[in-house]
């Protein structure tokens, strides 16, 4: 099974066309003020889930409200109708789809940023008073490396390994990249609870979301033998299970929405790997709901 990209306007700018940053200085234009900014995310989307987990870990319900969007965009071009006014206010006659995630400025009614990792860093640096930093000083390079590992070694490699349009050699090469990335993370996590240091950091958010996507989305593209090899990383999947039990992680999982988004985007038949689930994610989402978290 392959995933076809959502159609976009031929002249649509990049999804990261808006890359404003929140700063400490009032002269920057976007300075940090509680309740000035608002997030617009769909937790069925990997970037939206990353931001939502970050927002929960930092306890920002009061200082930065969140508007949760539908799992499946409601516009033919793959955008969200609710975001169209923000895009139009931010760029006259904006030609592309109104994509999530978005960090908006309620004072101006305009978009600050659509770049997920910039947003996550700014939330941590400017609104996380009194909490352990998710981007600790001195770990920028390490967190950047984990982001690349997850984006290229796990998510993109899994996508290519299950592509119906790739030839067998390309799929096999992509599977090797995926397994090498998982092997690296398995070895790195041996003997420690978190990826970097003694506390949860953005590295854990990145890796956990990549593993969620691998098991709930990309697994459906792979054959059963490949999924068995992916599952054969007990330290890594135990780590994913442990984080899923944390309310900031499991409490943001929208498994039904992820499934609907996946099926809305997919073309072709599912691979045999669909029958080989690695983790029971529903057990953790149910436990969070039962605890009232």
Can you walk me through this structure?
This protein is α+β, with helices and mostly antiparallel strands. Helices cover 46% and strands 7% of the residues. The protein has a 4-stranded mixed sheet with strand order 3-2-4-5. The longest helix has 22 residues, at 140-161. The protein is globular and about 55 Å long. The two termini are 36 Å apart. 41% of the residues are buried. Residues 1-14 and 286-293 have low confidence and may be disordered.
Shape: globular
Give the helices and strands as they follow along the chain.
EEHEHEEHHHHHHHHEH
Low-confidence stretches: 1-14, 286-293
Fraction in beta strands: 5-15%
| Distinct helical segment count | 11
* Tally of strands: 6
Structural class: alpha+beta
Gyration radius, rounded: 19 Å
What is the helix content? Answer: 40-55%
Mean pLDDT score, rounded? 88
Strand order of the largest sheet: 3-2-4-5
Largest sheet: 4 strands, mixed
Terminal CA distance reads: 36 Å
What order do the helices and strands come in, and which of them pair?
Blueprint: E1 2-3, E2 37-41, H1 46-58, E3 66-68, H2 84-90, E4 102-105, E5 110-113, H3 116-127, H4 140-161, H5 168-189, H6 202-216, H7 224-231, H8 234-244, H9 247-250, H10 255-265, E6 266-267, H11 281-290
Parallel strand pairs: 2-3
Antiparallel strand pairs: 1-6, 2-4, 4-5
